## 1
Amino acid sequence: MSSGPRIVEVRERVLKQNDLLARELRREFRRAGVQVISLVSSPGSGKTALLEQLLTRLRRTYRVGALVGDLATDNDAARLQSSGAPVKQITTGTICHLDATMVSNAVSAWTLRDFDLLFIENVGNLVCPSSYDLGESLRIVVLSVTEGEDKPLKYPTIFNSADIAVITKMDLAGAVEFDFESAHRNIQTVCPGMSVYPVSAKTGVGMEVLIQRLSQWERPAQTAG
Amino acid sequence: MSSGPRIVEVRERVLKQNDLLARELRREFRRAGVQVISLVSSPGSGKTALLEQLLTRLRRTYRVGALVGDLATDNDAARLQSSGAPVKQITTGTICHLDATMVSNAVSAWTLRDFDLLFIENVGNLVCPSSYDLGESLRIVVLSVTEGEDKPLKYPTIFNSADIAVITKMDLAGAVEFDFESAHRNIQTVCPGMSVYPVSAKTGVGMEVLIQRLSQWERPAQTAG
């Protein structure tokens, strides 16, 4: 019923509009020399704790900022502001994902050239965000050890929409009997060749390797202006 | 963009159709004397482990069954079948919630009078399932200690759509420094008066109290036939 021809048609039109705007955004980000990285995951996977660590560490070398999406509250923005980086909250009301319009509106008050790296934390959801291009150049899918090794098989679309995977809360791996090999195998089943970074934002394990990966991007030749 | 007037209009029509069918289903369940309980939560909150325990324990006294929703795989149904109860998997493809049609189709091959209690495990998602009535008489929202105490404030709509809350993985509460009082307070903020059941499917803590609550329903006078 909810996938009847009418609603599918409307959804496709919305997606097309989103793709066009996302393409424009991507061009704009590239021109400004800012690398945009988005994070998708289920609620409570530790995206915000991870981002807190990333902002704090990357700030030593780069000019970083973040947009954070949630249905309600600006808890995450308040929490991330303690890193000292500029952070903006996007509240979506009842919508289960960010879209290119929300991102475009949120960055409109910023001067993009003031940033090297901009993070976008999507609404916690393993389904809806997969179809919405936000103009990012790297998408990270985050999976926590407490969610279980089978999630890539159950939510293949969102894993497929991402470029790399990060496994969070590795400090709890023992307590929840998390089987890294099995999770890794399941990720490879749905996304052959995807790089997987196991980390703990709490103990810092794996953070430097991930930071290295995120620092590898092609800097555009700076134009005067 | 994704909430423009056209898509909202179509969504409302879909919801209305769903509500009508859900109402019919509810009447059918009541006539058959079956209590239908649904579970909603984010992915990896431990719904399936909880359901496994509930089916195994309730089966000693009642005739129980379950429908389990996922985008892909029938892992959950296979896992739950080990309880000995009849279990049916619903795979939704790319749809982020169950709806009344899917439930109606899934139970069509069963004789409802053969059940006392029927569980419906929704797709792991804290947004989409909130608007879809499945004809259930009790909806449980499940939150695991690893997701953090703030989730009720961030996803108020799904908490509001539920009748009771269950907090899972209490065996990990110490390891993740989970603050039960704070989570309880946040649930009361969005759903004043909601009962909260802390449990661990692993150690069995709290399971008997929850089972007691689920065993309290008004049995209809059995009619001949």
## 2
Amino acid sequence: METFSATYHIDTDADAIESRALGVALEQTVELPPGVVQDPFVWENVLGRVREITPETGPDARGFRVVVDYPLGASGLDPAQLLNVLFGNTSLQPDVVLLDADFPPSLTAHFPGPRFGIPGLRELLQAWDRALTCTALKPMGASPEELARLCRLFAQAGIDIIKDDHGLADQTFAPFAERVRACQAAVEEAAQETGRRVIYAPNIMGTPSAMRRQLELAQELGVQAVMMEPMLTGFPGFYELVTELLEVPVLAHPALSGAVRMAPPLLLGKLCRLYGADGVIYPHFGGRFAYSQETCQELARNLRQPWGDFPAAFPVPAGGMQVERVDELVRFYGPDTILLIGGSLYRAGDRLLERSQEFVARVHQASA
Amino acid sequence: METFSATYHIDTDADAIESRALGVALEQTVELPPGVVQDPFVWENVLGRVREITPETGPDARGFRVVVDYPLGASGLDPAQLLNVLFGNTSLQPDVVLLDADFPPSLTAHFPGPRFGIPGLRELLQAWDRALTCTALKPMGASPEELARLCRLFAQAGIDIIKDDHGLADQTFAPFAERVRACQAAVEEAAQETGRRVIYAPNIMGTPSAMRRQLELAQELGVQAVMMEPMLTGFPGFYELVTELLEVPVLAHPALSGAVRMAPPLLLGKLCRLYGADGVIYPHFGGRFAYSQETCQELARNLRQPWGDFPAAFPVPAGGMQVERVDELVRFYGPDTILLIGGSLYRAGDRLLERSQEFVARVHQASA
């Protein structure tokens, strides 16, 4: 019986842990009280099995780590049902955190993984030995012309990937089609001038059919990457676009992923990669969000470590980063990283081009 | 300037609250540091405004309640972007909880709300003055024949709505098409025998296009209601199916909604109703999940209270309920409620029909 496994933290006492662990295994599969399942087929092919219960260790440690094996068939190899088995109902139980999951090759074979990943994005950008740079077009409310002006400026500064802010949807002040047309033209013109290729990555967001239309248009217009928010618009839809329509790399954005009870290294590190992200944006420690240094390290490791045939995906640390932190960031992550500095560049006002050039130069230097 | 508003709990000190509140308003719209936005258009039409800051009250109260007004245009009136503005990035900040949101009629006019709601479901079931009954087909792993047998049994017992367990996807042991065909036939046969109409509600889950195919097939086969998991498969896709394809009532299931930092009365009470749910399943207090009595009360109130042209939607309390609690549940919620008892019925083993009949009789009596 092939299985995949989930690791949960369960916050309970030693005398309750066995029944709580069994409770999770039942909840996530048969959703019946203990003792009710009689059918040997269900017992064998569906029921989750508690494999391991170990006390958490370390100072202030409480509760237990529980590994549950789920038969592969319970997932139906379906991108929605997989998440449902991992954490569907248990997400509602406040004593449980989903820490990690492990998938056999027979499961991952049904998922795309990154189609470009680190090697593919480097090839596209012809940038081999250094960390990459990324910034965001903002603010929401700016016109397509203003966003295209910024896009050209960042392209002239040599920033590798210029992405839409995740708040740029299809609002009246910068409709998707106009914005993408103008920004893509801007990076192409800048490339003509500078001889250096940079990528504009529009934000794909809305209902499933709106996202499909946006993606088709963006690819027609020649964009070389896109951004999506899998927790906001749904992992199953992300999976579908990646497997059916997407011809360019995709960055995953963590909007609405504040389900703090799913560990970020799993959610953003493993699951985003499994479902096809080529790079994953997440809040770096010390910025205006609150991931710890260990979380960032582990998240980046999950994105880059060997995983079957999946290429490595880029960590894209972000969230209140400053140009002054570039050296530290490159030391921390190494060169297989995209450094995303957005809002703080804009503080430069009229010196935005110079500040952007400084960002680029610092990253190139720090990677040397 | 028309606005919609969000209410956040922010866990910080009195001397930091003003800047944290402003930080949230900026984060959720322009995503720029204070002072950078110069453009008067953006200032006027996009930027979130802190309207109110009040200290939390009560014993053990800490932190503040902050109301932020967002210009309607920031949402683009888009079902994905609305959630993004409410809690996209801020969901990543552990000091912030999204407590509530209020929407003007010019926003709700772009959302379906319940198409059937309490009056429409009562009409369908011809059940006017009592609480309704609901149970779940399980376990995952049972064959279509076995599920159809259970479906017929529950229909004979007179349970109003017989829904798939939310773990029934399109697995090999009970493929969607076979299962729905068999179960729908079972309720129709039972209706012939008993002269009483009950509804089978299959679980619609998968990628956006798989869900569309499932829904088309289910409606062709004559099903009279369906269930979906908006947090698992995405609110924008839920919105799209409701507005474009769905001809029957839909129950929303809370799988993966353990984002404890979005208050359940908002997420399950208001947002599910706004996006079109006719009934919303959620864990009742005292079961195997952990909502408080106040949370359940408030959630039910949000589903049923007057809201523009939207009909009321059914609260569907569930999660480890027992037949013995029926009286208490009906007293607590009143008759405009669907009582969902799943797993605990199955404990009856060979007496499942009798136990189901007892469930039905108790609800009818308690509502009298």
## 3
Amino acid sequence: MQFTSEQRLDDGVLEREFTLGEIPGILWTPGSASAQAPLILVGHPGGLSKMRSRLAGRARHYAARYGFAAATIELPGSGERPRLAAVEQARTDLRRAMVAGQPVGDEIVDALVLPLVEKAVPEWQTTLDTLLALPEIGGPVGYEGGVISIGIRLAAVEPRIAAANLFAGSFVPAAMYEEARQVTIPLQVLLQWDDEGNDRQAALDLFDAFGSKEKTLHANVGGHAGVPQFEIDAGARFFARHLS
Amino acid sequence: MQFTSEQRLDDGVLEREFTLGEIPGILWTPGSASAQAPLILVGHPGGLSKMRSRLAGRARHYAARYGFAAATIELPGSGERPRLAAVEQARTDLRRAMVAGQPVGDEIVDALVLPLVEKAVPEWQTTLDTLLALPEIGGPVGYEGGVISIGIRLAAVEPRIAAANLFAGSFVPAAMYEEARQVTIPLQVLLQWDDEGNDRQAALDLFDAFGSKEKTLHANVGGHAGVPQFEIDAGARFFARHLS
């Protein structure tokens, strides 16, 4: 890992850009860390520069108010990273189906999401190895955000992840419902009730499928980008219960 | 209103039992009130002595940690209060239908709940008049708990109620879905995902029906009595956003 920039923000949080091999990322750590900080991995749908201010808002709240470290990396095939041919093809097929008003078939959803999960999860795990080796970061680790299928796989296979705050999203492959049953860590699931691009019943079915004994659904009025501000703190408090 | 007992609890909260005409109730006020405290009306399914420790747990958290006053009254036809013949009959019909494994018809649900709503809502309003006249209590006012149909009617007709934290429950008359559309105040709705006695889809439909622009559903794993401890504080924080 190479740090490529470093900035002390006005809330005392240290924001560092890094590259891990070819993967760009950002790390936020609290200004006054007495002990090793728990770590939140902050997921997103891809396009780090576009998502940056929203991600930084959450990460800085976590770091400044709760003493958590938070980190994000670019998704495979997004931002400045080389495109994934199969995913690009699926995206074209998806767009064509939606423009034509046709139902989006399982094969399109699988082609769109599964290669991303396959590639992104090991990258998150490598990131985790590297970040946990830094002296200022300790366990335990939480994951939050979308792509929800990546969160499901990580929660199912990565034992260092102790809790996850997942954002419901559209286009979840059928196979991920099976994987959701394997997830047993505490979960919070955020659902935008009026998300035009998201099948509400499918999201409720997915919440139902998770094997976790502690799982909470937070459903809020509004569209995909309308997550209320207070959910940032609700997420932090969820992690505070499980990571502190 | 007559206070019939008064006790200073170890968290500094003042707990007073009262009667308002024939209606028994309990009022909790914060130990160190600098200004007039906002008020939370704490609803319940009836049977104050049976419910008391659970209600006091929430009320004392609100008073001690957030500086809210909280009050509850006995439901019509419950506890020491005279039975309501029509409601008792509906209860018998309900039990008979459930034992026989028959569906519970709309007419049973209406007979069980509507007279209770008709009688309880004006009682809550009289209680509100009386409590708001106390020097230590000011507005604004929140309502929380069940019976959800009582909460819906109160939220729809009582302009002094500024926010409501409603507990989803079974047996909601069809007419209440229409009233729910009239509700426009900020809402939080608590749903136990595996509540045996509660139709999950009906609860989701009711959440969908509310007219409020800010509404949040908190669904948690577990049965009717399994509401997680952390939801007490989530309720308090919801009220803190809207009543402070």
